[in-house]
Amino acid sequence: MQRKQTRNLAITALFVAIFLLQTFVPNIGYIRILPALPAITTAPLTVAIYSLLMGPRAGAIFGLFWGGLRLWLAITQPGDMVSLMLFRNPIIAVLPSVLAGLFSGMIGQAFAQKSSRIKELSYIGAGAIASLTNTIMVILLTSIIFIPNSTQLIGYLGNFGRNIPLIEVLFLALGLNGLVEMIFTAIVTPIVVSPLLKVLHRLS
To answer: What is the pLDDT of residues 136-163, one digit of tens each?
Structure first.
């Protein structure tokens, strides 16, 4: 039991260190394509991998860590006005991150006893869900919370007509980022998770 706890603590420390590198080293965790829009983030990949290794509860806690860092960055050193407006709101910064870790961990847990082929597919799904959950929840929460300030936010998102609903603008402006993140996370997650789980199984 103590050996397992030590192993889990070491894994968590390693992933925290990786996440800090993603957060603070340029072009590792946040890759900026368009200057005016939020950067494409590889954070859902790290959250998905950790959640598959450690389970949904630990994944949700790790997602909380991600959300806290995202909130702190938006307040102290935002990369663009959209990130400043969106992620300095604790709900938008934290809730999607927590749910991304929770849902991907739940998928891994649900298929843990299945065949190798099905588990591989579940890792792809978990990666995609982690990324999609983050993107869709950010868009939905923003469309609700920013109703009074929608005109100002739409102005930062691009050249859109005044009569276009905020949620539609958000999907148009942030959808490409979300699609790239989802494809990347879905592809890389099983490549990393499968060998890591085999190593952990040998050590247990």
So the answer is: 999 999 888 887 667 767 766 666 656 7
Distance between CA 76 and CA 178 in Å, rounded? 24
Helix 56-76 vs helix 43-54: crossing angle, to nearest 10: 160
Measured CA angle at 38 (ends 37, 41), to 5 deg: 140
Rounded to a whole number of angstroms, the distance between the first and last alpha carbons of the chain is 10
Strand partners, 31: 40
Residues 6+ apart with CB under 8 A from 84: 74, 78
Q: Is the pTM of this model over 0.85?
A: yes
Spatial separation of the C-alpha atoms in residues 24 and 21, rounded to whole Å: 5
- The pLDDT of 33-62, averaged and rounded, is 85
Q: Are 33 and 40 in contact (CB under 8 A)?
A: yes
Give 146's contacts (C-beta < 8 A, 6+ positions apart).
85, 153, 166
Give tens-digit pLDDT for 1-44: 677 788 889 899 999 999 998 888 766 767 766 555 566 788 99
Q: Is the dihedral of CA 73, 134, 182, 106 positive or negative?
A: positive
